[in-house]
């Protein structure tokens, strides 16, 4: 038959393109592989680790900062000293001393001493005149100055606790984002894995339809040869059969596309064949309130709470600008023998600083921080409302898909029975070919709807569990499923 040739051609083409063995994986095996195959999840891990390291770095903000520095300084110093006043004072004091000196000796010697003092006094202007009025001294040198400096915050007005709280909240944001990425990756795996199963089921369904039309066409040709039906009815079946072949070819290509998407998702170059069939639990879900009760643990709620904590830390940082700051400091000159004359050997002390007037409006900054905190709190409350609405919507989608799947059981049985009756009637020449074509189309449509309902159930279930941060429970629902679409093959 023509469809058999198409199958062989498609298979040969797939083997020639890949050149590798397709790996069959159950959903559990694919789930175990998704974390290692997802660069996005790996990136989230790095982001969390980075935020944790930054938060750890802020733990040492209260410790002293010790720094070493070394400087080579070349300098020149000029000193100028005015000697006019001291020189005049010295000359006057000497003159007074010499004038009083003769009276300190006996009368016989006073005349001689007087003559001597007169001669010395006459020489004083010459002696003191040799002394310059200004003394200048200039030196030039190169100094090597190594120093150790220590500074430690004593009180920062709450800035350090605010920074640490903000860093911790940033870690919570990164962790919440990672948890959300984990849930989204699981939903993506469900979409890709069971999407391939949908494509495979549609290929199987369209192949059955094509096989059915091949039988109908063969029967029609036999009836035409026996003169039971005209050639026009044979042409009607031929047209329907060709349409079924086109649908089968399209389903094959879509299955190949879905298989390629799953292989890329799981980083499996050789290709992946999904083994776990589409499933449905005939029992209803637990009440929606069960899923809503854990809303505080969802990544969106946790991320919103962490964003509110960051805004709260911003308020504390803005308040610290109004408060004083105190620091302890010290400096030690490690080369005192080669220090400048004005440099101390060591320095230690405490510094208190308070900003009296700032060029940055601190009040408006504080008001803005408080508004951001209120906005973050409102965003956290809105996030919880949004998550609750999404949980209710997803729960309803799961329940709708479950009921639709179960209701299609009777439709599928009726469509198969109708096709059987129409086939017998057509073979006996009692029913027109259009009735047979319609019956075959009805069966194909019912099977497609059933496949779609099962896929909608699986995907909606994954969405519900991801929204409520219970996505790891998906395998539990899969394990206890009592309806599997592959069982009908």
UniProtKB/TrEMBL annotation:
<dbReference type="Pfam" id="PF02321">
    <property type="entry name" value="OEP"/>
</dbReference>
<keyword id="KW-0812">Transmembrane</keyword>
<protein>
    <submittedName>
        <fullName>TolC family protein</fullName>
    </submittedName>
</protein>
<dbReference type="InterPro" id="IPR003423">
    <property type="entry name" value="OMP_efflux"/>
</dbReference>
<keyword id="KW-0813">Transport</keyword>
<dbReference type="InterPro" id="IPR051906">
    <property type="entry name" value="TolC-like"/>
</dbReference>
<keyword id="KW-1134">Transmembrane beta strand</keyword>
<comment type="similarity">
    <text>Belongs to the outer membrane factor (OMF) (TC 1.B.17) family.</text>
</comment>
<keyword id="KW-0472">Membrane</keyword>
<keyword id="KW-0998">Cell outer membrane</keyword>
């Amino acid at each position: 038959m023509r469809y058999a040739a198409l199958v062989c051609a498609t298979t040969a083409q797939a083997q020639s393109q890949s050149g590798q063995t397709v790996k069959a994986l159950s959903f559990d095996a694919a789930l175990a592989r998704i974390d290692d195959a997802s660069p996005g999840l790996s990136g989230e891990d790095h982001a969390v680790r980075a935020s944790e390291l930054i938060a750890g770095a802020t733990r040492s903000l209260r410790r002293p900062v010790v720094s070493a520095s070394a400087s080579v300084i070349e300098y020149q110093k000029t000193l100028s000293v005015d000697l006019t006043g001291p020189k005049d004072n010295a000359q006057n004091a000497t003159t007074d001393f010499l004038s009083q000196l003769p009276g300190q000796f006996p009368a016989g010697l006073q005349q001689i001493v007087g003559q001597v003092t007169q001669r010395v006094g006459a020489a004083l202007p010459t002696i003191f005149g040799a002394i310059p009025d200004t003394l200048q001294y200039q030196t030039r040198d190169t100094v090597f100055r190594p120093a150790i400096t220590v500074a430690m915050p004593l009180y920062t007005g709450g800035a350090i606790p605010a920074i640490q709280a903000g860093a911790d909240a940033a870690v919570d944001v990164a962790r919440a984002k990672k948890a959300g990425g984990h849930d989204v990756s699981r939903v993506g795996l469900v979409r890709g894995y069971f999407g391939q199963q949908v494509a495979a089921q549609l290929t199987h369904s369209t192949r059955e339809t094509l096989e059915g039309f091949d039988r109908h066409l063969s029967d029609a040709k036999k009836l035409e040869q026996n003169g039971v039906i005209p050639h026009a009815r044979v042409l009607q079946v031929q047209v329907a059969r060709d349409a079924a072949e086109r649908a089968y070819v399209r389903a094959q290509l879509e299955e190949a596309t879905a298989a390629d998407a799953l292989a890329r998702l799981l980083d499996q170059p050789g290709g992946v064949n999904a083994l776990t069939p589409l499933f449905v639990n005939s029992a209803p879900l637990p009440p929606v309130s069960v899923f809503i009760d854990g809303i505080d643990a969802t990544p969106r709620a946790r991320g919103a709470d962490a964003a509110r904590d960051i805004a709260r830390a911003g308020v504390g940082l803005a308040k610290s600008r109004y408060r004083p700051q105190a620091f302890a400091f010290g400096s030690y000159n490690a080369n005192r023998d080669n220090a400048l004359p004005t440099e101390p050997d060591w320095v230690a002390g405490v510094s208190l600083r308070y900003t009296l007037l700032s060029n940055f409006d601190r009040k408006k900054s504080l008001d803005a921080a408080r508004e951001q905190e209120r906005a973050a709190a409102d965003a956290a409350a809105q996030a919880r409302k949004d998550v609750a609405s999404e949980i209710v919507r997803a729960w309803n989608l799961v329940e709708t898909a479950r009921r639709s799947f179960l209701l299609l059981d009777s439709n599928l049985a009726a469509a198969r029975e109708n096709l059987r009756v129409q086939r017998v009637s057509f073979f006996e020449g009692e029913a027109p070919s259009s009735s047979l074509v319609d019956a075959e189309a009805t069966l194909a449509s019912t099977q497609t709807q059933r496949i779609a309902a099962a896929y909608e159930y699986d995907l909606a279930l994954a969405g519900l569990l991801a929204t409520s941060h219970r996505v790891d429970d998906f395998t539990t629902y899969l394990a206890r499923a009592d309806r599997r679409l592959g069982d009908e093959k």
